[in-house]
Amino acid sequence: MAMNAMDHPHSALAGLNPRELEVLRLLAAGHTIKTIAALLGSTETAINERLRAARRKTGIGSSRELARLLEAQKNWDRKIDLSPPGDPANNQPQPALAGRNWSKGLIIMAFILPATTVALIMAMAASTPQAATPAAADANSRSSPLVGSWALDVSRIPAAERPGRVTIRFRKAPDGKWTSLIEIVAPDGSGQHAESTAATDGVAVPIAGTMAFIDTVALRQPAANTLVMTLGKNGAPFSTRVYTVAKDRKSMTETIVWPGSTLPKLETTHFKRID
Known about the structure:
The chain has about 280 residues and is an alpha+beta fold. It folds into two domains: about 5-75, Orthogonal Bundle (Arc Repressor Mutant, subunit A); about 80-275, Calycin beta-barrel core domain (Lipocalin, Beta Barrel), CATH 2.40.128. About 25% of the residues lie in helices and about 30% in strands. Strand 3 (about 180-185) and strand 4 form a beta hairpin. About 35% of the residues are buried. Residues about 1-10, about 75-115 and about 125-140 have low confidence and may be disordered.
């Protein structure tokens, strides 16, 4: 017999994979199966299959009840920095961590991201040179490994969930701010886009565009080849994405950290440089 969400322990959500959690978050936000499929560049059949799998794993008979249970988890809100622009909390000095020559970005992230995410980012940064000084970075912003256009390698994604195309373009201004332009094209040719410009200080800024499931972004840059992007909706975290460029500057990995369970769910996608 299916359990009621009100009686079901939150630990049941730990068994859900990132794609199932993604659909449940959108369902909790009021989307229908049709609009979720459009937003994710997938099919309604694939979305329904994710929901069936989530119900089977948790024993909860209603997808909407399961979505409400996921929405009720507030633990992550205290772990991701999604304060609005100008919030004094973001300008508080951070304590130093003795015994390590870490960049300021890594030190701050150690206090706002869960331990698993921090460990992941540190591992990525450890094998790369430290970022240049602010003056050198401004003078050579075009030379940043992240700058340019990147296309998702859709061949690595299951056919039933494969979008038509996903592209990301990163630009860096002389003042150190990053502009991110993202375009998602579904298999039927319909598209969505998002654009934002933010400093790498972890302060959330608005996102412009047509991606209804996100409205803010906050950036940090722990290393020259790494950009950490935290996306939010209505003041709540949606996902954190760590973009890391390979030494040859021709490929980039996107590690996605999904909230919603005791331990964060990790998912990796791959991009290729197109300019």
